[in-house]
Amino acid sequence: MDTLTKAERSERMSRIRSKDTKPEMVVRRALHALGYRYRLHRRNLPGAPDIVFPSRRKVIFVHGCFWHGHEGCKVANVPKSRQQYWLEKFARNKVRDHANLEALRQAGWDALVIWECETKAPERIATKAESFLSPAAKERFQ
């Protein structure tokens, strides 16, 4: 049972952003500190990736653990009310994410997903991003 009224729940849900989220900003700061420059939210690419490196043909998605159903993550729980709705919603999100990654791969782009829970350790993000963006990474991420 939801503890909020319908109006209160609607107001809270309306505050959830899809761009410039805290996890995304952590990743962007780490990349910028490493000297990388990038484009944001390119709508002409499948899934409108959060961070785009056009010259490298690489993109980074920063996924929220809850919304994208991060397997094994404590944040990715199913709400107690309307569980069937949420299970279907998360399943659709996963299918859409997989289709976007596949479409990018087919178009010749490499993609990296960084999960919200990973942003708690920015130093690990820097290592992961460096590994992904280095010229030798093409072989590792295919």
SSE topology sketch:
Layout: H1 6-14, H2 22-33, E1 39-40, E2 51-53, E3 58-63, H3 65-68, H4 83-106, E4 110-115, H5 122-133, H6 137-140
Parallel strand pairs: 3-4
Antiparallel strand pairs: 1-2, 2-3
Helix pairs in contact: 2-5
Query: How large is the radius of gyration?
Result: 17 Å
Got a strand count? 4
Task: Name the helicity range.
Answer: 40-55%
Tell me the strand order in the biggest sheet: 1-2-3-4
* Secondary-structure arrangement, i.e. CATH architecture: 3-Layer(aba) Sandwich
CATH superfamily label: VSR Endonuclease
Structural class: alpha+beta
| Total tally of structural domains | 1
CATH topology call: Endonuclease, Chain A
Strand proportion = 5-15%
The rough form would be described as globular
Distance between the termini: 44 Å
Task: Give average pLDDT, whole number.
Answer: 87
Order of secondary-structure elements: HHEEEHHEHH
- CATH class, please? Alpha Beta
> Helix segment count?
6
The low-confidence runs, each spanning 5 or more residues with pLDDT under 50, are none
The largest sheet, given as strand count, sense and whether it forms a barrel, is: 4 strands, mixed
